[in-house]
Queue: 2 jobs
Job 1
Amino acid sequence: MKLNQATDYAIRSVLHLSGLPFGQVVEAKLIAEEENIPMRFLLKIMRLLTQAGIVESYRGVNGGYALARNPSEITMLDVVEAIEGPIAINRCLIAPEYCSKNFSEHCPVHEALFELQQSMVEHLKQYNFQMLRERMK
Amino acid sequence: MKLNQATDYAIRSVLHLSGLPFGQVVEAKLIAEEENIPMRFLLKIMRLLTQAGIVESYRGVNGGYALARNPSEITMLDVVEAIEGPIAINRCLIAPEYCSKNFSEHCPVHEALFELQQSMVEHLKQYNFQMLRERMK
DNA sequence: TAATTGTATACCGCATAAGTATACTTTATA
DNA sequence: TATAAAGTATACTTATGCGGTATACAATTA
């Protein structure tokens, strides 16, 4: 029931970028140092954020990363899902073959867990990075 | 961000017991068969539930397990915590030394994750096993 | 054309999850 | 009072995924 470390790093990286003038490009090395993230691992994470359209990457000299949209339009859910994929708190919620009862009857556990999951998703959607940034003050 | 399999099994086992007249003792073998749980693994899980005071165990011939309290007084949170320990969606929420910023400043990520965690805990507390049982009909 | 950036892919080591095995204790009952 | 039927305790196994590295490569700028 834990977010993984990569997600934590991703959130902090996006938060970092959110503190800069929009469009400003920052090299990975700088983020890694300031946020205390192992460099090569960060690069891997940034690629996921890039693929998810949260961040834009620039290669070559003076390359780096910049946000692809305004901080107010990036939610924590966006970042979590970019790294971990869709949220699923129980494997039976994505892969029905894992239902230990094989769907033989109406399953209140499945239902309750799904409701919990939905509430988490909604909760994560509430937070955008402009908000988080403001909360730092 | 997943509950583990043991927790799923635990929930289903408690749900199973909740369907019986209060105090009725059922042997592990039966639960294992009906709920499709590997026998020896179930025994391990049941011990955690026993230690948590959710279930009572009886050894020897005609032994087995019975609920220690009424289904209406057992919540999903009780069961989840019995198996997984206290909920912590980010390691920085329990072990401050994992804070990648070393507490050097006010951390909105920590704060937001804590709020999410609290909402999950509250949510899990809402569900008791009498409710879940009724939902099966 | 060389230095500086990110990309792609594959790999490693460890911790944890999920499950199994072995030996033991308790209890009912024949 | 012995024995079979239950759970207990502990240690082991096996597989998976997490967190992180390494190597080779591609793009870009000066």
Job 2
Amino acid sequence: MFRIGEFSKMSKTTAKTLRYYDEIGLLKPEETDQFTGYRIYTTDQLVQLHRIQELRQIGLSINEIRVILSGRDYEPVLQKRKAELISMLVEGQSQLSRIEFILQGEKDMNYFATIKELPGCIVYSKKIIIPNYDAAKQEVYFGIIPKIGESIAKQYPVLKCATPSYCFITYPDGEHKDKDVVIEFCEAVDKLYPDFDDIVFKEVKPCTIVSIIHKGAYSDLAKAYAYACKWIDENGYVIADSPRENYIDGIWNKESETDWLTEVQMPVIKK
Amino acid sequence: MFRIGEFSKMSKTTAKTLRYYDEIGLLKPEETDQFTGYRIYTTDQLVQLHRIQELRQIGLSINEIRVILSGRDYEPVLQKRKAELISMLVEGQSQLSRIEFILQGEKDMNYFATIKELPGCIVYSKKIIIPNYDAAKQEVYFGIIPKIGESIAKQYPVLKCATPSYCFITYPDGEHKDKDVVIEFCEAVDKLYPDFDDIVFKEVKPCTIVSIIHKGAYSDLAKAYAYACKWIDENGYVIADSPRENYIDGIWNKESETDWLTEVQMPVIKK
DNA sequence: TCTACGGCTTCCAGTAAGGGGAGAGTCAAC
DNA sequence: GTTGACTCTCCCCTTACTGGAAGCCGTAGA
């Protein structure tokens, strides 16, 4: 027969924890004095608590422990915890890798990579051939894209673009070409409509991406791509699809090139 | 200029989280409408949030992120997180190993291993030679130990044993012998006293142990030892010192052998 | 017998990072 | 004018406890 202080020393458990376990019904003292409220423990509770400690030490929650102590089969509980633990370890490794990556990078690097889940959406798309990468973008965003918008609006007056607007281009060719690059312009809309002219409506599947935000002129976008590729390579991912350039701020709403904002979205999967 | 719903879609962050970040001052919207309370975000906040997401994804707490965003050097913060992560991974591996150990064991095994930190203490100790392991224990606990108690009480009437009492034996020889085994009886007391006869006072250092509770006759204690050794071996520990048998319930307070309770304490260190 | 002190009690608050939901106000479309 | 979608604030809930305050209990010393 031990009072809580003694029992806590024997079991290497704080009195606070013992009171808590009493309160939640995980481990009741042998008896509680009716007048003083003093909890009285015996070695029976010591044995039970030992079991509880074992299960806590392997990371089970108190409710999981309850299930096990109730006499049901412990195997499913342990299997679940094992799966949890494995995914925790994978996640931890990945975080570690990302920290190393940052620590080894230059200190004033201005790119930051995040992982995001993109939901699926429906887009209209149009392929455009441009003579080379950088020079033509100005023309595309200023000239071609607004025209596409107009012709869409004329064809389908009820069509609505997604809010917030999601418009991007990809390079469907996959491999790099220096001249006559094919780019595909996409904008998310409310639903599928029949194709017309060379505008194609299609579904874009949800995917996991690495997102890098680039602030500044398009001529520097290559740096963001380089950073993204390095990040993906060194953090155990592989590119799963052609990257998207998501235009957030640009010539249409910001005068100065230095304010332009573009998100490079690289679809990836874990290696 | 985006309201919270739009902004949450753009940033893949829930509105709840955005309100929370506003509340705690981590990310304030560009402005809050004075009359409606509506939060208005801009792409500036999108960039900031992107950074916050990066740092959250590597597991930093919000306060750590605050430190980094305040412009101070991020390296110490990341180093700290890295160390944290490594110890988490080690702990996780160890839990995983323990779960595997349980899953691979027999289903109705009655031993449970816990890791505990034993505080240091002061004990008096006496070495006794017994002819063999099991047969003599009865005699030791019933005959010799009470006599030690008496002679201690006579020599030092003010001496106080620890509460709760902590008394154990060890096998200081280390290696196994079949005959004329040396056992050392120890009991924790309040402080050092001068040695007398063959009773030696000494300090016992704090240590980490694997604790196994054995219920039943001493003749079965070997099973507990076997379990402990297997556990230690398969979970990445090594034995660091001679094990202790801590007597909790025994002939002195329980009639039936089946009620006796003994804790096997194996000092260990992580490999 | 009085008192001091340590041990025990209950109750309340707080942790990290939000999630869930109620009740009420706002906005744009029909 | 009304509906439905959106937003606001406020409050409670999560885990496994820890810390502290106010008050009762038990024992040892003067």
